Amino acid sequence: MRSLLDDPWLKADTIVIKPNWVGTDRSYGFTECEALHMLLEALDGRIVVTESYSLGRGPPDGGMKFTADGKEVDWKWLFMGKGWKWLEKHPDWDWFKEGGHWDRIRKNDRWFLDEYEFTDLFNERGVECVNVTEEVWQGRKADPHEIKNIVETRFPPAFREEIYSCVPRRLYDLRGATFISFAKLKKPYRDIISFTLKNFFGMLPDPLRAWWHQWFDSSLIDTIKVYASLFNMYGICEGLRYIPWWEKTKRIIKDSGILAFGRDLVSVDAVLCGLVGVDLEKLSYIKLAEETFGAYDKRLVEEAKAAATDWFPL
C-alpha cells in the first residue's frame, strides 16, 4: 500500500482520515480495524481520525427509550417509517442531549472503539480522534461566517446555510492538510452505495440524518464543498479483506485485495460503480457532483464494466 499511495498530498505533515463507521453490520460494510491499520502504516504524517456519532454504532439492544408523540419508543424506532418521519420534523436534538441519550451514545462509541480494537490501534499509533457530533454540540465549532466566506469563494452558495455551522473548530484549525475519505467497497442492496463521496454524509453531526436526507443530494454535495474548501481532498476505497456483495443472495467476497484511490473523488466513485455494476444514472448525487467538481471519464467506467466479470465471478 505504501508503494501504491505515492502522491505528494499523502506525504503531508498532518492527514485527516474519515472512515466509514455508519454501523457494525459487516454484511453492509464498514471500515474495520485491519484496513485502517494498513493505511496508517502506509502514511508517515500525524493522523487525525474524524467521524460523527451514529445511532447504529453500538450494542444491538435497541438503544434508550423516550416519548415521541405520546408513545414510548426507542432508538430502533427512529430507523423505521414513522420514526424516520418524526425525525424529519425534529432537526433540533435538544431532546436527545437532555434526556441522558448523549451520555449513552458516548458509551456506545467507546464500546465500538474498544470492541473493534480501534482504541488499541489509536493508542499505539498516537492517533487523535475528533468526533464531529461532540465538537459541534459542545459549541466547539468554526465560525459559520468564516466557513461561508471560504466556501463561496470557490463554489455556489450552499442549499441550506445550516451546513456552515457543522465544522468542528479543531478540524478548521487543520485546514490545508490532506483529508482522506476512506470508504468501503461493496455491492449493496438496491444500489445504495457509500463510496468516497457519500462517506462525507457522516461529517454531519446528527446521529441519524433523517432531516438532512430530505435534501440528500444538495446536503451531501454541500458537505463536500465545505471540506474541499478547507483541505486537499483524497479518496481511497478498499476491498482488501472482504467485500459485502448483495446480488440475488447476500455473501462476502474475501481477500480480493482491491484498492481504488485518487484526488478526483467523482472519478474514483464512478469507476467503482462500473466495477460493481451500479447504474450511475440512478445516482442523482453523482450528477450534481459532476456539475460541482468536474465530470468523470466515461471511457474508464466502460473499462471497469468490461473487467467486472473477471474481478467478481458469479
Secondary-structure class: alpha/beta
Which descriptor suits the 3D outline?
globular
Total strands: the figure is: 10
Give me the number of helical elements. 13
List the uncertain runs. none
Helices and strands, in order, run as EHEEEHHHHEHHHEHHEEEEHHH
Compute the CA-based radius of gyration: 19 Å
Approximately how much beta-strand content do the residues carry?
Answer: 15-25%
Question: What share of the residues lie within helices?
Answer: 25-40%
The main sheet orders its strands as 5-2-1-6-7-10
Distance between the termini: 27 Å
Biggest sheet, open or closed, and with what strands and sense? 6 strands, mixed
| Mean model confidence by pLDDT | 93
Descriptive notes:
The strands form three sheets. Strands 5-2-1-6-7-10 form a six-stranded mixed beta sheet, with helices on both faces. The chain has a two-stranded antiparallel sheet with strand order 3-4. Strands 8-9 form a two-stranded antiparallel ribbon. The mean pLDDT is 93. It has 13 helices and ten strands. It is α/β, with parallel strands linked by helices and 314 residues long. The radius of gyration is 19 Å and the shape is globular.
